[in-house]
Design a protein that fits this description.
The chain contains ten helices and five strands, in the order ααααββααααβββαα. It folds into two domains: 3-145, no CATH class; 158-294, hpI Integrase, Chain A, CATH 1.10.443.10. Helix content is 45%, strand content 9%. The protein is mainly alpha-helical and 304 residues long. It is elongated. The chain has a three-stranded antiparallel beta sheet with strand order 3-4-5, covered by helices on one side. A two-stranded antiparallel ribbon has the order 1-2.
C-alpha cells in the first residue's frame, strides 16, 4: 500500500510496539467521541489543512505558534479533565498521570501522521505550555475531589540514605567527582523532601545565606504543582555523611559543578540533570539509588 493510501490508525503506527499501538488506538477512539461532541472531523477524516493550517513548500507551518491543532488540543485537554468512567459501580475520573499520558499519546499520533507539525525537530512551545497547564489543572481538580494524585510508595529510612551517601563516596567507577555528585544529590533531596526531577532547576545564582536563620536558602520550584517555595538547608548534627553543606563542599572540591551556564546566565547546581527529557532527571536519581541497592546498601529496595 502506498504511503498516500494509509488511512487506518495501525498503518500509521506500524513501526510501533503492540502496547503503543493499543494505547494509540484507545486514544483515537476517545478522540472520535470528543470530535463528535465538538463537531470536528473524526480521526480518519482529518486533513492536513484541518490540523496544520497553511503549510509552506518546504514543509514548515505558516503559523508554527498557533496551528489549528492548538485550539483542538486545548479543548481536548478540558475534555480529558471532565471525562468519567464507571469502575466497581462508582464514577471515576482519570488520575493526573493518566490524563497527561493520554494527552501525550494523542499528540504523538498527530505528529506521526502530519509531518509538518514536527518540522522544527522539537516540541513546539504551544504544546509544552498546554501539557504543563493540563498537569496543574488535573492535579488541582483531583485534590478538590479528595482523590489521591499518586499511589502511595514506601519511603527510605534515614539510615538507608546515610548508607547510600557513604557508598557514593567510595565510588571510583568513572571519576571521584561522580561519587561526590551523587552524594550531593541524595543529601539535597533528603533535606528538601523533594522529588527527583526538581534538582534540575536549582542554580547557584539563587542560593543565599539567611543571616537570621543561619542557613543556606534555596528557592525550590515544584513544576508539577506550579509553585515555588523557599527552603532552608542546615548542617546535619548527627551525620556528616548526610550533611548538605559537607556534601556540597566535597562535590566542589572534587571538581564537580564547575559553572555550567545556561543561555540566560544560569549557573546550574546539578548541570548533568538539566535539559533532560520529561522525567529524565527523576529517572537518573532512581538509577543512583539502584546503584546503591546493587552495592548492598541496606534499606534500598530493588527498582521495579
Amino acid at each position: 500500500m502506498d504511503m498516500e493510501e494509509k488511512t487506518s490508525t495501525y498503518n500509521e503506527m506500524e513501526s510501533k510496539s503492540t502496547s503503543t499501538k493499543g494505547s494509540h488506538a484507545t486514544v483515537i477512539r476517545q478522540w472520535n467521541l470528543f470530535a463528535q461532541e465538538q463537531r470536528y472531523p473524526l480521526w480518519d477524516a482529518l486533513t492536513e489543512k484541518d490540523v496544520c493550517g497553511t503549510v509552506h513548500e518546504n514543509g514548515s507551518l505558516a503559523d508554527q505558534h498557533n496551528p489549528p491543532l492548538r485550539k483542538m488540543m486545548a479543548e481536548y485537554a478540558s475534555y480529558l479533565l471532565q471525562y468519567t468512567f464507571e469502575e466497581h459501580g462508582k464514577k471515576k475520573y482519570y488520575k493526573t498521570k493518566v490524563v497527561a499520558q493520554k494527552f501525550n499519546t494523542l499528540k504523538s499520533g498527530f505528529f506521526e501522521r502530519f509531518k509538518p507539525l514536527g518540522y522544527s525537530g522539537k516540541l513546539p512551545d504551544w504544546y509544552t505550555d498546554l501539557l504543563s497547564a493540563l498537569k496543574v489543572r488535573a492535579g488541582t481538580a483531583a485534590m478538590a475531589r479528595g482523590d489521591m494524585l499518586y499511589e502511595k510508595t514506601s519511603g527510605f529510612s534515614r539510615d538507608a540514605i546515610v548508607g547510600s551517601c557513604s557508598y557514593s563516596m567510595t565510588q571510583r567507577e568513572y571519576s571521584e567527582a561522580l561519587g561526590y555528585e551523587e552524594r550531593f544529590i541524595l543529601s539535597t533531596l533528603f533535606h528538601a523532601v523533594g522529588r527527583g526531577g526538581e534538582v534540575s532547576t536549582l542554580t547557584w545564582n539563587t542560593v543565599d545565606w539567611n543571616e537570621t536563620l543561619q542557613c543556606l536558602s534555596v528557592p525550590w520550584g515544584e513544576f508539577k504543582k506550579g509553585q515555588q517555595s523557599e527552603l532552608g538547608f542546615w548542617p546535619d548534627s548527627e551525620s556528616y555523611k548526610l550533611d548538605f553543606i559537607h556534601a556540597q563542599a566535597c562535590a566542589l572540591l572534587a571538581g564537580y559543578g564547575g559553572g555550567s551556564k545556561g543561555i540566560n546566565g544560569e549557573i546550574w547546581m546539578f548541570p548533568s540533570y538539566v535539559d533532560m527529557a520529561e522525567g529524565g532527571a527523576a529517572s537518573k536519581v532512581s538509577r543512583v539509588l539502584t546503584k546503591c541497592h546493587e552495592g548492598k546498601v541496606e534499606g534500598i529496595p530493588a527498582s521495579d
